[in-house]
Amino acid sequence: MKKNGVIVAIIVLKIFFISSFTFAQYKSIRQGDIPVDIYTTFIRAFPESEDVEFYILEIDKKRIYLFDFYIAEIGMKLFVNEENKITRFQEEIDFKHLPRKVYETFLKDYPGGRILRSDKINVEGILAGYIITIEHNDKKFEVEFNKDGNQVEKFSVRFKSN
User: Fold this and answer.
1) What is the pLDDT of residue 97?
2) What are the distances in angstroms from CA 61 to CA 58, 85, 93, 94, 130?
3) d(CA 80, CA 68)
4) Angle 5-66-38 (CA atoms, 0-180°, nearest 5)?
5) What is the per-residue pLDDT for 37?
6) Alpha-carbon span 19 to 25, nearest angstrom
7) What pLDDT was estimated at residue 157?
8) Four-point Cα dihedral 42, 121, 131, 69, nearest 10
9) Rounded to an integer, what is the distance from CA 61 to the centroid of its chain?
10) Residue 57's beta-bridge partner residues?
11) What residues of the chain score a pLDDT lower than 70?
12) Closest CA to 88 of 134, 24, 28
């Protein structure tokens, strides 16, 4: 029974992120702009982080803080909401480790395209899907897949400097 509850929670969270992130706009911020408790959550979770960049985005009038960083040259992203809860974690993976269905969809839907980056997505510690950054026909965008390898969303995110 608990397993079904977890699956429903993942689906609900995925719907929230997919519908919201499609039109999300990240704004670059300074470390000092992040509430101390939220920054402390990040540092405790990833004390060995390097080259950290900080962003904020608003979804349904709620702030989400994004920590974009590296550990041992592996790119990572951590999303923390205003309630100081980690809502999403992305870890860069080699595209060779993507599920076959994700890679086959990429080859079929984006012929001649190039994968610039691939990440696995975890929501509350459970694998929720994958996201790949693609260059295709001189455009860059991201495509999100669920954990079964089905394409869920294609989107572009614009960054604003502070």
Assistant:
1) 94
2) 6, 16, 32, 35, 26
3) 12
4) 80
5) 97
6) 13
7) 52
8) 20
9) 19
10) 64
11) 1-25, 157-162
12) 24
